[in-house]
Amino acid sequence: MSGRVLCAQLSLRCCGTTAPEHTTGPCWQLYVVVPGLVSKWPVFTWPTGTEVPSGEDRGAALASLGFTLADDTEWQWTEGTGPAYHPHPVRVALLAAAKVQLLPGGAA
User: Fold this and answer.
1) Collapsing DSSP states into helix, strand and coil, what is residue 18?
2) 61-102 pLDDT, tens digit each
3) How far is CA 64 from CA 44, 61, 86, 103, 108, in A?
4) H/E/C letters for each residue in 45-101?
5) What is the rounded CA–CA span in Å between residue 82 and residue 65?
6) What's the CA dihedral at 78, 24, 17, 102 to 10 degrees?
7) Residues 99-108 pLDDT 10s
8) How many CB atoms lie within 10 A of CB 28?
């Protein structure tokens, strides 16, 4: 994947997550979309909470996964509606995406 530009996504998991670790409440999760199985994507999960991770926090999370933002890239935010099947009222769903590349010596 060296030199290849990939995509990182950041989303608020409204009901927690089960992978890579279990959380019982809302949390932000960053993952890098790489070729292969979704279960093999590099993932970083912040502790339970709804505060949006700062740009600095996102950069540190990416670095911990072996990635950095691609040159001249900014996070692009989108807003949608969460799925109606959740056991709570429908909420606004935020998603951010940015192009990323491997850090020198980084491994995904």
Assistant:
1) coil
2) 999 999 999 999 999 999 877 667 766 666 667 889 999 999
3) 8, 5, 31, 10, 10
4) ECCCCCCCCCHHHHHHHHHHCCEEECCCCCCEEEEEECCCCCCCCCCEEEEEEEEEE
5) 27
6) 80
7) 999 998 765 4
8) 23
Angle at 30 (CA atoms; ends 74, 52), nearest 5 degrees: 70
How far CA 5 is from CA of 35, 99, 101, 106, in Å, comes to 12, 6, 5, 13
Determine phi and psi for 63, rounding to 5 degrees: -60, -40
What contacts 24+ positions apart, CB below 8 Å, involve 51-54?
52/12, 52/28, 52/94, 53/10, 53/28
